[in-house]
Amino acid sequence: MSSEASETYGDPQTRTRILDAAWRLVEETGAEFKLADVASRAGVSRQALYLHFGDRSGLLVALVDHIDKSLGSESLRAEVFGAPTGVESLRRWVETMSWYSAKIDAVTRVLETAQYRDEAMTAAYRNRMDRRQGLLRAIIDRIAGEGGLAEGWTQEEAAQLAYAVTLPSSWRELTRELGWTAEEYADRIWKVLERALVSRVG
Amino acid sequence: MSSEASETYGDPQTRTRILDAAWRLVEETGAEFKLADVASRAGVSRQALYLHFGDRSGLLVALVDHIDKSLGSESLRAEVFGAPTGVESLRRWVETMSWYSAKIDAVTRVLETAQYRDEAMTAAYRNRMDRRQGLLRAIIDRIAGEGGLAEGWTQEEAAQLAYAVTLPSSWRELTRELGWTAEEYADRIWKVLERALVSRVG
DNA sequence: GGCCTCACTTGACATGCTGTCAATCTACCA
DNA sequence: TGGTAGATTGACAGCATGTCAAGTGAGGCC
Q1: Does residue B32 belong to any structural domain of this protein?
Q2: What are the tens digits of pLDDT across the range B57-81?
Q3: Which of A33, A57, A125, A174 has its CA 20 to 30 A from that of B148?
Q4: Tens digit of pLDDT for each residue in A77-116?
C-alpha cells in the first residue's frame, strides 16, 4: 500500500515513457485504465511499473507531477502574478485555469475518484488542492491590500469561495456537460467572482 | 452490465433491509463498500443482492432513490417553492440543499466516483443532476419574472451558474475540508449568488 | 577477460471482489 | 399433493492488482 517507490529507480527515459503512456491511456479510457495496458503501450513489462512507481497510486501521483512539468505550470503561475493589479491577477487566474483544466481534465477526474484510495493518494490530492488555495489566497490578499475586496468577506473566506467556485468538478460540469466553451467559462465565472468579491469602484 | 434488475422482484421488506444496510455501510466505508458486507449486514445472502438489483450499479441507483424517499425530498421541494418571492425561493433552496447535502454526502461521493462505470450509472447520475438544474431553472425564471435577475445574464446562464456553484463537490470541499458549518456554507454561498445574480434594488 | 551491478523481463502465483449458475430449501397457497 | 415465489448454498470463471524468484543483457571496473 502506497509504497514510496524509491525516488530514483531506473532509467529516467523509461520512467518518462511509462508516464507518457499512462497519460495518453487515461485520456482515452479514464479511471479504469489498466496497468497492463500502460505497460504494453510504453513497451515495457508490467513489472517495470511496480519497480518504478511501487503501485497504482504511486503511478498516479507521479503522473500528476509529470503533467505539471510537461505543461510548464510554473510559467503560468508567473504570468498570473505578473498582473498589474490584484483584480487583474484574479481574472487572469480564472482564464489560465480554464485553459489548463481543459488539458488535464481526464487526469483530474481519475485523481478525484482515486482520492480516497490510500494515504499517498489522499496526501497527493490534498497537497495539490492546498497549493491552489494558497495561490488564490495570495491573489485575494493582494486585492485586499489594494482596497479592492468587497465588504462582508474576510480574506480567508473570499479565497475559499474563489477556490470552491473554480473547482475542477465545476469546470467539468459547465464545459463538458452544459457545453460552455473554455472562454465562456472564464468570462462568466470571472463575472461571478468580480460581482461577489470585488468592491464596486465609485 | 447494468442489468435492469426487474422492477419487482422479491419481498419489498428484504429489499428495504438491503438498501438500509447498504446506506449505513456506505456512510461508514465509502466507495469501497463490498457487496458481501452489505449482504451480511442485511442478513441475507450475497446472491439476494443480485436477485434484487442485478448488479452493483443497480444497487447504487436504487439506493439513491431509496434515500430520496427516506428523507422526504418531495416535501423539501414544496417548501422551497412555497417561498413568497423568487429570490427568497433561491435563498431557501441553498439553505435546504446545504442541510440535505450533509445527510447524503457519503452516498453522493460514491455516486460521483461510480458515475462513469456503465450506462445505467451515468444515466442515473445525469438524471439526478438534470432534475436539480431544472429546479434551479424554475427558480431563476421566477426571479426573472419578478424583475430580479441581474443584468448581464440570460436565465439559462444564471441557472447553470447557480447549479455549478452549488455542486456537491463544492459543498464537500467547503464543509468537510475547510471546516465551514452547513449554516456558514448556506449564508456565504447565498451571498455570492445574490451579489452575482440578483439585481440591486434601488 | 572475468565479474558485478543496474535495469528490466518472464512466468508463476496468491488474493480479493464481482458476477453467474445450478441445485436446493421453505413457506404459503390452491 | 403440487406448485411457485423468494431466497440460500456452494462452486466457479474472470479479471486486475500486487508479489516473488529466477533469469537476461549491457556497461563499467579491476
Answers
A1: yes
A2: 999 999 999 999 999 888 889 989 9
A3: A174
A4: 998 999 999 999 999 999 999 999 999 999 999 999 998 8
CA distance B5 to A73: 47
Chain C nucleotides near the protein (CB, 7 A)? 6-11, 17-22
Cα B58 from chain centre: 17
Contacts of A160 (CB under 8 A, 6+ apart): A133, B174, B178, B180
Cα dist. B8→A9, B14, B49, B52, B127 in Å?
56, 12, 13, 8, 21
Nearest-CA neighbor of A53 among A18, A25, A23? A18
Shortest Cα distance from A8 to chain B (angstroms)?
A: 32
Q: How many domains does chain B have?
A: 2
How many angstroms is C1' of C21 away from CA of B51? 13
Helix (H, G, I), strand (E, B) or coil at B29: helix
Residues A108, A190, single domain; the answer is yes
Domain span at residue B143? 72-197
Chain-chain contact of A191 with B196 (C-beta, under 8 angstroms):
yes
Task: Using the CA of A48, give the nucleotide whose C1' is nearest.
Answer: C8
As a rounded value in angstroms, the CA-to-C1' distance for A22 and D24 is: 26
Rounded to an integer, the average pLDDT of B21-27 is 97
Report the residue of B56, B109, B117, B160 to disrupt the A interface, i.e. the one with the largest count of A CBs within 10 Å. B160
